[in-house]
UniProtKB/TrEMBL annotation:
Source organism per UniProt: Hyphococcus lacteus
Gene3D superfamilies: 3.30.70.2450, FAD/NAD(P)-binding domain
Protein name, per record: FAD-dependent oxidoreductase
InterPro entries found in the cross-reference section: FAD-bd (IPR002938), FAD/NAD-bd_sf (IPR036188), RIFMO-like (IPR050641)
SUPFAM superfamilies named among the record's database cross-references: FAD/NAD(P)-binding domain (SSF51905)
Pfam families: FAD_binding_3
Cofactor list: FAD
Keywords from the named record: FAD, Flavoprotein
Residues in FAD-binding domain copies: 3-296
């Protein structure tokens, strides 16, 4: 039996951010992952890095790296079923920390986080899979399948950042209620022959459904649609030079009842999953991670669940409303989009309210940022 103070299970964006924020405060967690490497860079997955995440990862120096490597989407443009541009709005609302949404493949974000973590002497222990727990959150013990045999770890604190199918969540008896949607989203990352606007998010409504385009740098972009047969949704005149990655996925809206039991904490997709509309998944997980690390350092981690659950519920509610609106845009929704939205977005207070969601600044301000602890 090995004793460890803090054990983080999962080296995705959430686990890495938590390990980094603990390490920079002088704590030395162990971080294990059943995989062998980071998310491949060609599989873009979570692309949108919002203002809140950039604020949270600034003290570690990670945000400077993200900003240097990412693409800055400065505005959103929406076209209606008649081919008319109906919404054009910048992300530069009063109060925004950065007047853009940063776009970066998830694997690149993970590598930047891991490089910062390495500076504190913490290395990810790959090929280590939690296969069982003792089910006792007050004195957690994990059984781990490691390359050199089975290992049992008794930890003072276990942080489950092991994604949507979390073994930690299931092993320590957390509920994960919610709903699965029948809709299957399709996405494809392509390099195009012709250039396109690389500083905008473009959403195209047609009678066949909705298709969004996000710039990934150069002539590379992602198309995403709530239709699995996304190839049929792409513009007819689009010339593809290189198909980089294609995927489809079902969406779920689920979250735990609480994010902590005894000495076991959940963060990121292990605690909450929702649709990619609004690009909040990875950002919310990084935010959980940063708050948890700060609260552990402050010795206030007993309040972690109480602090984070309202944010989780709020984001799930918002993404669900946004997803439902996108999937079933009725007559009034179309009217508002085509005739009201652009005018309203010219009013600073309205624009600020609308864009706080995009920027992620609708969650509580982290109190440690100015003091830099
Ligand atoms: C197609 C797609 C597009 C998306 N777009 C966006 C977006 O634009 N913006 C956004 O914010 N989010 C987006 N998301 C969501 C985002 O990818 C997730 O929210 C994010 O990856 C969650 O990070 P995480 O670290 O919590 O979990 P994960 O990234 O799932 O990491 C969990 C880690 O735990 C490890 N693990 C699992 N089980 C075990 C075990 N038993 N033992 C040891 N290790 C284990 C896994 O190997 C993995 O490395 C998107 C998701 C998809 C699928």
């Amino acid at each position: 039996m090995n004793d460890t103070h803090i054990l983080i299970v999962g080296a995705g964006p959430t686990g890495l951010a938590c390990a980094l924020e603990l390490s920079r405060r002088g704590l030395k967690p162990r971080i294990i992952d059943k995989g062998s490497d980071f998310t491949p860079e060609a599989e873009s997955r979570a692309l949108g890095v919002n203002n809140r995440t950039l604020q949270l990862l600034a003290p570690s120096g990670v945000s400077a790296q993200l900003l240097a490597q990412g693409v800055k989407a400065k505005r959103v443009r929406m076209r209606n079923e008649k081919g008319r541009d109906v919404i054009k709005a910048g992300f530069d609302h009063p109060g925004a920390l950065y007047p853009f949404v940063l776009i970066l493949p998830q694997g690149r974000t993970e590598r930047i986080l891991a490089a910062a973590l390495r500076q504190y002497g913490v290395e990810i222990e790959w090929y280590k899979e939690v296969i069982a727990t003792n089910g006792n959150p007050k004195k957690p013990v994990l059984d781990i399948n490691a390359p050199d045999g089975l290992e049992s770890i008794r930890a003072s604190k276990v942080i489950g950042a092991d994604g949507a199918s979390s073994v930690i969540r299931n092993g320590f008896g957390f509920s994960f209620a919610g709903e699965s949607y029948p809709t299957e989203f399709g996405l494809v990352d392509v390099e195009t022959v012709e250039p396109f606007a690389t500083d905008e998010l473009f959403v195209d409504f047609s009678n066949d459904g909705v298709l969004a385009r996000m710039p990934l740098g150069g002539n590379v972009c992602r198309y995403i649609s709530p239709r699995a047969d996304i190839s049929n949704m792409l513009p007819k005149d689009l010339e593809i030079k290189h198909l980089i990655w294609q995927s489809s996925f079902h969406i779920n809206f689920r979250y735990v009842e609480k994010m902590q039991r005894g000495s076991v904490f959940l963060a990121g997709d292990a605690a909450h999953i929702h649709s990619p509309v609004g690009a909040r998944g990875m950002n919310l997980g990084i935010e959980d991670a940063c708050w948890l690390a700060w609260m552990i350092h402050q010795n206030t981690d007993a309040d972690y669940s109480k602090m984070r659950m309202p944010q989780v519920r709020m984001v799930i509610k918002q993404t669900r409303q946004q997803t439902d609106a996108l999937l079933n845009l009725g007559g009034f929704g179309r009217f508002a989009r085509d005739h009201l939205a652009n005018t309203l977005l010219k009013i600073p207070a309205f624009k600020k309210r609308a864009l706080t969601r995009v920027t992620g600044l609708d969650t509580p301000e982290p109190p440690w940022i100015d003091g830099s602890v």
